[in-house]
Amino acid sequence: MRDLSYARDGHQVFSGLNLDLADHRVGIIGRNGSGKTQMARLIAGLAAPDAGAVTVGGVEVAKDRKAALSTVGILFQNPDHQIIFPTVGEELGFGLTSQGLDKAAARDKAQDILARFNRPGWYDRPVYALSQGQRHLVCLMAVLVMAPKLIVLDEPYSGLDLATTVRLGRYLDALDPGLIHITHDLHSIGGYDRVIWLDQGEVRMDGVPGDVLPAYEAEMRDRGGRDDFADL
């Protein structure tokens, strides 16, 4: 991110932000309203900066959307905000045909990713028949089938039960692409290479989890112990 400025609904989220994210596993933390989700959207190319640029793997993602599809993928907090087709096969094939594959090649790739995740019978399965955890898995497969260099995770465990969280975490831990993981779950990023603490659109702290997470948790506990609620 170079000289990044971005406003949303009249609120200045980022102003002249510069940040390089080259580590394989990066966690991003911060209070609600600190800019985490907007950063995710900017990195994925789903929003365009008002000034400056966001470049991933040499691709300016907001301007070159076709190249961005195979460069960066995003997994949202709510799978129902991401899934747009009635069957699993259609959902998995959409991005592939957008990349220029014909329907037969897209179907083959979709079936390959289903087999990889031990779900070979899901191709024609209606999305509405899946649990929330299963829909999360469909979204993950839809991202992975595009073979991106980077995956952005925006609170991927929100609303999931413990068993599904563990299973999804195991899938994510085994991925080859780089991860940028936006979360309130500090435990889930304890083994990452780097953690960035965002505060009101600025980098409050940037370093290894062992330094950043305890400092963040201590401040949040301190704020939570105040009784005037003035900063909520």
Task: Describe, in plain words, how this protein is organized in 3D.
Helices cover 34% and strands 22% of the residues. The protein is α/β, with parallel strands linked by helices. A hairpin with a 2-residue loop joins strand 1 and strand 2 (11-17). Helix 3 packs across helix 4 (103-116) and helix 3 packs parallel to helix 5 (132-144). It is globular and about 55 Å long. The model has no long low-confidence stretch (mean pLDDT 89).
Q: Notable features of this structure?
A:
single chain, 232 residues, alpha/beta, Rossmann fold, 6-stranded mixed sheet, 3-stranded antiparallel sheet, 7 helices, 34% helix, ATP-binding, ABC_transpr_CbiO/EcfA_su, ECF_ABC_transporter_ATP-bd
CATH classification class = Alpha Beta
Specify the biggest β-sheet.
6 strands, mixed
CATH superfamily: P-loop containing nucleotide triphosphate hydrolases
Strand content: 15-25%
Give, in spatial order, the strands making up the sheet with the most strands: 7-8-9-3-10-11
